[in-house]
Amino acid sequence: MIDTTLNWVDDRLGIAKGGRTFLDKIFPDHWSFMLGEIALYSFVVLLGTGVFLSLYYIPSAHEIIYHGSYLPLRGQKVSEAYASSVGLSFDVKSGLLMRQAHHWAADIFLGSIAVHMARVFFTGAFRKPREFNWIVGVTMLILGIVNGFLGYSLPDDLVSGTGIRIAFSIVESIPVVGSYLGFFLFGGNYPGNGDIIPRFFLLHILIVPALIAGLLGAHLGLLVKQKHTQFPGKGKTEHNVVGSPMFPTFMAKTTGFLFMVTGAIFLLGGFAQINPIWQFGQYEPYQISYAVQPDWYMGWLDGALRIMPSWEWVGWGHTLPLEVFLPAVIFPGLIFNIFIVWPFIESHKTKDRAYHNLLDRPRDRPMRTAAGAAMLTLLFTVFCASSTDVLANFFQIELNYVLWFFRIAVIAFPIIAYFVTYKICQEMRHAEGVGKRKRASVVLRSDRGEYTTVASEPRPGDGHEELEAMPVPVSIDLVPPELATGAGVRRVLR
Amino acid sequence: MRNILRGRLAAPAALLAVVAVIGLTAFWPSDGARAATNGPAPAPISAVVPTSTTLPTLVSPTTTPTTIGSYTTPGVTAQAYATANNPHSGITYQVPPDSFIAPGQALFDANCSSCHGSQAEGSARAPNLRGLGAGTVDFWVSTGRMPLADSSVQATRKPPKFNTLQTLEIATFVQSLTPNQGLGIPLVNLSNADLENGNSLFTLNCAACHTITGAGDALAGGAYAPSLHLATTTQIVEAMRSGPGNMPHFSQGNITDPEARDIAAYVHGVIQHPSNPGGFGLGGIGPVGEGFVGLLLGVGILMLVAFWIGERS
Amino acid sequence: MSAAQRKDPSVTPVSLSDPHLQPLAKHPERVQVLASLAMVVGTLGFVGFAIAYWVGNQSQWLAATFGVGLLGLGAGVIAWGKYLMAQGPFVEERHDFHSTDEERSALAAAITERGGLEVKRRKVLGGLFALGSGIMAVVLLFPLVRSLGPKPGRTLFETNWRKGSKLVAVDGREVTVDDLVVGGVLTVFPEGYIGSSPDQTILIRLADQAPDEHYPLQPPGNPSWTAGGYVAYSKMCTHLGCPVGLYQEQTQQLVCPCHQSIFNVASGAIPEFGPAPRPLPQLPITVDLDGYLRATGGFNQAVGPGFWERP
Question: Which of A104, A209, B92, C205 could form an SS bridge with A268, CB 3.0 to 4.6 Å?
């Protein structure tokens, strides 16, 4: 039956050879190669739950009276966007679960991109020929962050609305064109004519996801064409890939992983409340709550805005608000540009123009690893700086001290991290047997009182043989060997 | 188990333990850093004052609490605030009878006069209490902020030193020093409270310091806006009207009595019993907590799954 | 095997007993039992989800059943793939995918020689097309960008506060001189423009003064713009536009909740701390003969965050 179908399709599309090659594709088995899949599958969940949400959400700033089932809001003038989001949470069956799963999926999507990117960085997988893929990946990170911001701003609640106000001011701070851009985007002076909600909606459900999906296709396509990298090991060279075939082994594992990612997201979506917009109320530009932070992947920008000193440049009839422009435009621009050009910085510095299909152990590249650690430390410190008020409250320290701590930490900690990481890498490279499982030493005492040590017996299961890798079998003889006979003779079992 | 003991799974087991600890601390019900337990709830005024006096009975509102772990559909209704006898709507300001003055003076002399002076006139260490009224004194004493040992830091809510009767006696004494001046003790009747109005007023006037979920936060110069999760309706109105510490004074020309009642109803019914149908509230601190849970619990557990699926060497 | 392959003697089928085709697990039957259990639990989970969905709208039940369903099936199929399928390892060769030097020069030649030939022959056409396309690309931006909204013009410099505008609260109440006590704070708008973001103003009573008295604000505050102990400032933070709603009565400071800029109210709302660069613009107010608070003019500068055109 498979033969007939296959013949029919192949007559028309000629897929047999490519299909076989595709099914034979080898995927290396290391666990850290699956981090990108967490991102991929949370993106799938985002699309699915997003479709559900878009069936109920109304992207309009038009004001109506709330008549839903959350009583403290009943009778209040709210936007249709807010009312429909609260409606999703209380009055649509499984609506709250879908909303929360969608939001958790976004947090996990960006979190897994971060760990995946760290893995790619620290193992040097971005080197030739994979620079394109690295750039595609960084672009998806940027688009993901943007889409997350657009998405959590859609419900038009007090907390996310404050973020939109800040976004307008950041656009406004751009020299020469800032106020024009702000007015164009918002349809007027803040808060605009209400057009910002449907514009955010269109960007969030169509334009940016389409870009991400296209880049994702390119990302995976490049991966298929260039084949995955692998760690050095027995039988692994620059010219092969060792692992499991796409079909059926890898497909089974990755399908299972899809289910696990989805399951984890939905469990979080049902048991951990996130973004309870009904508690925040409708956004009004003259109202505000204290202790408001953006979602974590925007936190580093908020932190940068808080710790920046109030340097505003005024001269020759113009103002350049550096206290906004530097932390919110220049700083992220610099960081993302460093990300994008890093493969070229590194290949220029190391003068390395060779192909690399084998990965590095991070300790073998101490400068790269230390630089990455310093960058992560910088981003994490700036991220923590977005909670200055919460930290001041929790630790009962004055706001001033907390702020000054972060101003200094943001410069000092990355430098310290660089040198500490460098040193650790050096030491790990020179230490014997680091990372390998230790075997106990048996201490023997000779008759004369001499002490010697001997390695203990290997534990059962330690000494298993590693098989030599073999090519994916073209065909498998499904007859059990004990039943095999010569050609032409068929053994029948009764 | 054998695998864990052999150390093969030591690393992921440790990671799982860390994740579990963080998950537990994230989900542990918390009330803000400074919400110390207040001991047993103070008895309502009616329990200590004979009903033959002019004081009407204090309202003890019934509410539909939503505790962590019970996932009932949210429904905090104005009708839930039924009361036994309430001829008035809004707030009435009362002062306990004169029989409270003498015992109040004794308590004041023993506990307060060393800083505030025997006639509550104040000193270098403590402010003048004359003219502030019984309601103001009742706020500070019933929340346990007074007596205060160290006046160099902002006073914290703590288990009150005096019971309700004693608190009222002290308050009555101070009030008696300036008989017709200052704030009376607000008796709040929530039966006709408009929750939606309270919601709007709270957001406009209170959320900027106390946060939209009433969790409180740090202010400038070492001060802080406290959490609202333990305040009684009386204390809420007393605070609004007397403006303790750095809190502004919200007078009747700014927030009328019915509006104050609505705010108190909102704080009592919604802030203190938030609707959390989505699951554990994660402490109500917003995206920071959510980020930690999403990254450590969400991405963390999925990384553990990847660790299971894939190779290790 | 296909019929053709069976006829081809060079393709030797791999025997089933080959160790690469054996499962990884030492006791595959036991793993199969566990995996089956997981899948059964998973399936039951989905059945449970269906029931939970029809019975009610409890997020937790829906999530628990759906989640258990997914985790069960997922764990089962992962266990199948990892422990029960052919353990390998398998290898495939990487082939150089970059083209030969001949192929590259052929491509380069196609572009430079064939294409170059035509362009050299018709330089004028080439130039004109390039010029036209370039202008088209720029012009296409106009409907995409410019049609989105109006030009800022003087809008950022103006609010609706005029000489004589009454101060009104959010509920429409006109503010009188007796409304606030010392230490009171209120959000106000010009009459008729309640809720208008650039007009948002914060009114604070610093002292109990007669309506014609002025509060001694320190510079850059303007004492003559106060009345009856009241002072009014724009509520829009000069850092990023958040409403500066947090007033500390004892220290007379306004704190912006977004990034903790601190403004000294008695000194013209000058920023003492944090990222805000400029004081909050002060609104000149007075008390009229009926006791209502009115503005005696608009703000004397643009409210809110800085922008290029701000002098």
Answer: A104
Contact B251, B183 (CB under 8 A): no
Q: Is the pLDDT of residue B28 over 60?
A: no
The Cα B105–Cα B100 span in angstroms is 9
Residue C262 DSSP code: E
Cross-chain Cβ contact B299/A268 below 8 Å: no
Nearest residue of B to residue A385, measured between CA atoms: B288
The two three-digit tokens of residue B49, written as one number: 């004052």
Task: Report whether A399 contacts A405 (CB < 8 A).
Answer: no
Contact C59 B248 (CB under 8 A): no
Q: Inform me whether the pLDDT recorded for B222 exceeds 90.
A: no
How many angstroms away from the CA of A449 is the closest CA of chain C? 44
Q: Among the residues of A173-295, which ranges form H helices?
A: 178-186, 196-202, 208-226, 251-271, 277-280
User: Which residues is A240 bridged to in the sheet?
Assistant: C93
User: What 3-state DSSP class applies to B215?
Assistant: coil
The H helix count followed by the E strand count for chain A is 18, 10
SS3 content of chain B, % helix, strand, coil (to 5): 45, 5, 50
Query: A151-177 in b/e burial notation, b at 16+ Cβ within 10 A?
Result: bbbbbbbbbbbbbbbbbbbbbbbbeee
Q: Does the pLDDT at position B54 exceed 60?
A: no
- Give me the residue from B33, B208, B222 closest to A398, CB to CB: B222
Q: Which residue of chain C has the CA closest to A173?
A: C307
Please tell me whether residue C204 adopts helix, strand or coil conformation. strand
Give the C-alpha separation, C34 to A78, whole Å. Answer: 52
119-138 in chain A: CB under 8 A from chain C: 129
Q: ∠A489-A490-A491 over CA atoms, to 5°?
A: 120
pLDDT score of B292 more than 70: yes
Cα(A323)–Cα(A172) distance, rounded to whole angstroms?
12
| Nearest-by-Cβ selection for C255 from B207, B220, B254 | B220
Q: Residue A401 and residue A15: Cα distance in Å, rounded?
A: 67
Burial class (CB in 10 A: 0-12, 13-18, 19+), B121: middle
What distance in Å separates the CA atoms of residue A369 and residue A418, rounded to the nearest whole number? 8
Cross-strand pairs, C204: C185, C231
| Inter-chain touch B253–C178, beta carbons under 8 Å | yes
Q: Do the beta carbons of residue B296 and residue B265 sit within 8 Å? A: no
Please name every residue paired with C186 in a beta bridge, in sequence order, or none if there are none.
Answer: C203
Strand partners, B91: B188
CB within 8 Å: C200 and A470: no
Q: Please tell me which of A98-112, B13-27, B42-56 the model is most confident about, judged by mean pLDDT.
A: A98-112
Q: Are C304 and C233 spatial neighbours (Cβ–Cβ below 8 Å)?
A: no
Residue of B nearest to C249 (CA): B246
Main-chain dihedrals φ then ψ at residue B140, nearest 5 degrees: -65, -40
Contacts of range A70-74, beta carbons closer than 8 Å, 24 or more positions apart: A70/A278, A70/B74, A70/B275, A71/B75, A71/B76, A71/B77, A71/B78, A71/B195, A71/B196, A72/A278, A72/B76, A72/B195, A72/B196, A72/B198, A72/B199, A72/B266, A72/B269, A72/B270, A73/A278, A73/A281, A73/B196, A73/B199, A74/B196
CA–centroid distance for A302 within its chain: 19
- pLDDT tens digits for range A202-254: 999 999 999 999 999 999 999 999 999 999 888 888 999 999 999 899 999 99
Say if residues B208 and A284 touch (Cβ distance below 8 Å).
Answer: no
C165: helix, strand or coil: strand
Is this complex scored with an ipTM above 0.85?
A: yes
Closest B-chain CA to C195: B204
Determine the Cα–Cα distance for residues A389 and C159; give it in Å rounded to an integer. Answer: 32
